[in-house]
C-alpha cells in the first residue's frame, strides 16, 4: 500500500496545501492547473452523488477507485476538503484523514498564531508534522510495480 499525494482545499476551492510522497508519474501541467482540475472534478462528483443517490447522501462522496489508484475525500464542517490519492489496496483511509485533520491540521495550522484563515499554509512545522504523520501511517509505503 502507498500514499501518492494530498491536496487540502478551503471552502472556496483555494489550494491551501499540497504534498506528495510516492508519486511516480507527473501530470505534465502546473500544480495550480492540476489543483483546479481536481477541485472541479470533486465539485462535479459531489453534485452528481447528491442528485443520483438512492439514499440520503449525508456523508456524500467519500472516495472513488480506478484500476490504478483511489481518491479519498474528507470534508470538514468548516468546508475544508482533504483529498488523498493512494493505491487501490489502501484501507481505513477515512479514519486516517480524520486523524490528519484533528492531530495535524488543527494542532499545527489552526492553532498557529501566524496563520491567517484563507491563506496558503507555509509553516515548516506543519509540513514536517504532516510528513511524519503520513510516513508513520500503516498505508504509507513504496509501491511495488
TrEMBL record:
Primary location class: endoplasmic reticulum
GO biological process: endoplasmic reticulum to Golgi vesicle-mediated transport
Localization: Endoplasmic reticulum; Golgi apparatus, cis-Golgi network
Keywords, ordered alphabetically: Endoplasmic reticulum, ER-Golgi transport, Golgi apparatus, Transport
Pfam families per the UniProt record, alphabetical: Sybindin (PF04099)
Domain of life of the source: Eukaryota
Regions annotated as coiled coil: none
Entry's Gene Ontology cellular component terms: endoplasmic reticulum; Golgi apparatus; TRAPP complex
InterPro entries: Longin-like_dom_sf, TRAPPC
Assembly mode: Part of the multisubunit transport protein particle (TRAPP) complex. The heterodimer TRAPPC6B-TRAPPC3 interacts with TRAPPC1 likely providing a core for TRAPP complex formation.
Family designation: Belongs to the TRAPP small subunits family. BET5 subfamily.
Protein name: Trafficking protein particle complex subunit
Organism for this UniProt entry: Drosophila hydei
Amino acid at each position: 500500500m502507498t500514499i501518492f499525494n494530498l491536496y487540502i482545499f478551503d471552502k472556496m476551492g483555494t489550494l491551501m496545501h499540497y504534498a506528495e510522497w510516492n508519486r511516480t508519474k507527473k501530470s505534465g501541467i502546473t500544480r495550480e492547473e492540476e489543483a483546479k482540475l481536481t477541485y472541479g472534478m470533486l465539485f462535479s462528483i459531489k453534485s452528481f452523488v447528491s442528485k443520483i443517490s438512492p439514499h440520503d447522501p449525508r456523508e456524500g462522496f467519500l472516495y472513488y477507485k480506478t484500476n490504478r489508484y483511489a481518491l479519498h475525500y474528507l470534508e470538514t464542517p468548516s468546508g475544508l476538503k482533504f483529498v488523498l490519492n493512494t493505491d487501490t489496496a489502501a484501507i481505513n483511509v477515512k479514519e486516517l484523514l480524520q486523524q490528519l485533520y484533528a492531530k495535524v491540521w488543527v494542532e499545527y495550522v489552526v492553532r498557529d498564531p501566524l496563520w491567517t484563515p484563507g491563506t496558503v499554509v507555509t509553516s515548516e512545522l506543519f509540513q514536517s508534522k504532516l510528513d511524519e504523520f503520513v510516513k508513520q501511517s500503516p498505508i504509507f509505503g513504496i509501491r511495488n510495480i
